[in-house]
Amino acid sequence: MKTRWYKDAVVYQIYPRSFCDGNGDGVGDIRGIISKLDYIKSLGVDAVWLSPVYKSPNDDNGYDISDYRDIMDEFGTLDDWKEMIAGMHERGIRLVMDLVVNHTSDEHAWFVESRNKDSEYRDYYIWRRGRGKDGKKPPNNWTSNFTGPAWEYDEESGEWYLHLFSKKQPDLNWENPKVRQEVADICNYWFDLGVDGFRCDVITYISKKDGLPNGKPAFLLVGYEQYAVGPRYHEYIHELNERSFSRYDSMTVGESIGITPDNAFDAIDESVGELDSVFSFDHMSVDFRLNVLPKRFDLVKFKKVLDRWQQLPKTCQPTVFLENHDQPRCLPRFVGDYKDKRELAGMSLAAAILFLRATPYIYQGQEIGMTNCNFAVEDYKDIMSVNALATVKKVAPILMPYAKKVLLKRARDHARTPMQWTDGDNAGFSTAEPWMKVNPNFKDINVKDSEAREDSLLNFYRKAISYRKGKDVVISGDFSLVRPKHKDVFAYVREFKGQRLLVIANFKNKRVKFKLPNDFAFESSKLALANYKDAQDLQNNLLLREYEALVYEIK
What we know:
With 555 residues, this protein is α/β, with parallel strands linked by helices.
């Protein structure tokens, strides 16, 4: 029976390679996670989303899986994993695993077998003859999300296979019913081991357009929506839900390019029997042109996008996040030049998202205000960054300075620097040299320092998460923006059966006047949460201090 526990949950994402190293080899691992379970519990979160820990040759840091039923050697063993999930469940924390089934690694046994044209596994992947008399031109003009053609030629069989990501990540052929059953069996295997749900990686890519027709040119994350939500997507997910998800008290969330408020009902409403929720990316694109070129953050557009998701029926569960392993850090992105007010700015962002009708996701390090890193070219590790730099250098070297500037704002690497636990060697992440550069500001930004200060961003997150827990007004309340066109302040009201919350968050490093609408009537108010000790009582006219955040219970 599904309890839909995720409606009252806060989820903490762990990127295992960068979280904590338990065996001193410079790479984060499962034993490192086990050592930090009490810390995770102290945050008050209800679940952990764990990025992939399956067997993988690591072309895309674990998102290229060679064995879905075992653990990567660098991360530990299946017994370590079992100890970890038992420790989570003992602490009342659920575990959401990553489900990466649009593609596998080219080292997966299925793909190795599929290179043989006569193998039953040939049809597990998307193989096609090439164009031209010799078949040496790709079957169509599709391009990879990681730059370059989306097809790779196989000399052994004389055909091409599709890979919408790295050439070492061949796409599975979901038209094949055996593939779909394999995926359901994989899910059930982990459910039976105690997993509580799945985050479904690029799940809307699983259904390709009939005939694989030529598409629009796509480059550096622009134009890939054309590959999403193909003609049989809903059929496939509904089938997977019937064969797996619906049989457990699970939560599923899709990385769902192509799902918007306009079509979300058909994808996540409780009546359709598909996914429980999806990650929306439209609020993460208001500070970029063409999804890649940085521009000034627009708070008015940001609020408008979130409001559209909030207005979905209560049987559709939105999500909200500001960071994850694929996104740069949120502070420089959303609040501008915060200077010496980094933690106040982080508190303002936290208050703004934690009281929406949504399942909030917090990424490791977000709770202490970790920031982007000043990378040199040789510091980038992510395949997307490396490929982008190589492509620009080859195609338009004159643009290299601009490409570097964009990556300093946009690169996925920013989220993957090691977690900053202490001000000691390697930020307390490892006793060995970490696999990736540690942000030099770990001396000032770390968990140890944050734990010691009552007024830290970390302790604000704890208070806010504790306050929202179990409140019907947060879980089910109506949402309405207050002063939606205000350029500096994000304010909204949540209301449920006479309970009302007013949330006010100043996104600017300056004092801002904020006047409640003339028709905003209230008899009394109680301050529930604030990031200044001497916070003011609610008035019709407020002078908000830099990054001030206020949550009121009002009548």
